[in-house]
């Protein structure tokens, strides 16, 4: 199939001079990807393949466009393996989206070379272990999303080389301990999501100073109302806090209301959210977020870039 035929079939306007190749939701599949990889792009910087029924990306190794890519979006496909990434040179890659696939292993990251990677999204996969991060070097990584997996331990973060990490999403996993935060530097962390895990104790957070943290979400069914330590955590620039509580917890108790009042007095937007709420608390641009049943001192608006808006 020629470029012209591809454009006609999928209603695109691709040429060898295309810089941003976006085929979001076109359902091109493995065959369509093969055709794209046969094109000799001269200056392709963004390859956005979200939601395309792609199950195999080995063909990426046969095209040299990786040398100029700044963004690669493979999210919402059917990938079970990303081993080919070790065979492609990505000297300029800043954004890598692998979320919403069927990945159970990311061990290949020990062999990849992403010297400029700033954002890595691995959410909504089948990962049970991230131990490979002890062998990974992403010196410029700022955003790491591991939410909605089956991860039970994050102890490896103590030996991971992410010196500039600012956003860390670990929500909706099976994590039972966050003691590792006492062993890592959190001075640059701006966003931390820990809700909907199996945390029974978060007292370790009292020993940590979060100078730059402006967004925190925490709480789950097992934590209950044992959240007094939130008032003892050293926050420098906190703006928003989301506390997830089981519906069986009385939000009108002095303890819970005391926490809400404490943060309100510090001009921090405080939100109660039910653990039974299946929706993520990240919302689209320009939407207001107001949680019922809890106190909220502000409009609660929170802007989050979708994959396609991130560049």
Summarize the structure in words:
By secondary structure, the protein is mostly beta strands. It contains 3 helices and 13 strands. The protein has an 11-stranded parallel beta sheet, covered by helices on one side. The chain has a two-stranded parallel sheet with strand order 9-11. It starts with a helix and ends in a 37-residue tail after the last strand.
Using brief descriptors, characterize the structure shown.
single chain, 311 residues, mainly beta, Leucine-rich repeat, LRR (right-handed beta-alpha superhelix), 2 domains, two-stranded parallel sheet, 3 helices, 13 strands, elongated, disordered C terminus
Biggest sheet overview: 11 strands, parallel
CATH architecture annotation name of the largest domain: Alpha-Beta Horseshoe
Q: Percent helix among the residues?
A: under 10%
Strand percentage, roughly? 5-15%
Supply the number of structural domains. Answer: 2
Number of helices: 3
Assembly state here? single chain
Number of DSSP-assigned strands:
13
Q: What sequence of helices (H) and strands (E) makes up the elements?
A: HEHEEEEEEEEEEEHE
The CATH class of the largest domain is: Alpha Beta
Helix and strand composition category: mainly beta
Radius of gyration from the alpha-carbon trace, in angstroms: 21 Å
Principal-axes shape call: elongated
* Unreliable residue stretches: 281-311
- For the terminal residues, how far apart are their CA atoms? 30 Å
Spatial strand order of the main sheet: 1-2-3-4-5-6-7-8-10-12-13
What CATH calls the topology of the largest domain is: Leucine-rich repeat, LRR (right-handed beta-alpha superhelix)
Mean pLDDT equals: 87
